[in-house]
């Protein structure tokens, strides 16, 4: 009898433990439970998302500002692109010995001479001495047939002539870099006439300058 009572009490105690355990589990998983862990996880994820988005926006702003700054620098007066080139100049009529500023190039016509050794009657070899100083960053290469022109009083072009150029030294040729200057002679085959001749220096980007002279 005593043994039976002990077994009943033991069973009752075990049942009480089981009931207590089920009640605790129900409290933990019930609808009224407040748990900081999921909230913390959600809060952490939510916090990371705005940070990433903010970083993306910040990156976009940085690229936009950089692009805008680069565009502004290029277009601005002090930017890397520099100021836009001015319009072409058209200078003249200049006297022999005067200098002209054609863009960054300073051009001077010093003198004109004739040598009567031309192969055709009524024509002469016309020699022009010039100096060009390059004040720009781009090199300047002498192009006697395209950038140096002589016109007779009849307003006809006198062609550049190698035989005439060979009669004087040095010949005006070569490439001038920034800060360099060069002097030399250019020769033309011209009709010998009374009246005013012109020598014109032309640069395709900067413009032109024209000098007037007569044959002695």
Outline the biggest β-sheet: 5 strands, mixed
Task: Give the H and E element order.
Answer: HHEEEEEHEEHEEEE
User: What's the rounded overall pLDDT mean?
Assistant: 75
What's the quaternary structure here? single chain
N-C termini distance: 158 Å
Sum up the overall morphology in one term.
rod-shaped
Kindly state the percentage of residues in helix. 25-40%
Number of helices: 4
Query: Numbering strands along the chain, what is their spatial order in the largest sheet?
Result: 1-11-10-6-7
Strand content: 25-35%
Q: Which segments are poorly predicted (pLDDT under 50) over 5 or more consecutive residues? A: 22-84
What radius of gyration results from the CA coordinates?
47 Å
- The overall strand count is 11
- The structure class reads alpha+beta
Main attributes?
11 strands, 216 residues, alpha+beta, rod-shaped, 4 helices, 4-stranded antiparallel β-sheet, 5-stranded mixed β-sheet, single chain
Task: Describe this entry's structure for a reader.
- With 216 residues, this protein is an alpha+beta fold.
- It is 35% helix and 32% strand.
- It contains four helices and eleven strands.
- The strands form three sheets. A five-stranded mixed beta sheet has the order 1-11-10-6-7. Strands 2-3-4-9 form a four-stranded antiparallel beta sheet. It has a two-stranded antiparallel sheet with strand order 5-8.
- It is rod-shaped and about 150 Å long.
- About 29% of the residues have low confidence.
- InterPro entries: DUF4352, Immunoprotect_excell_Ig-like.
- Keywords: Signal.
- This is DUF4352 domain-containing protein.
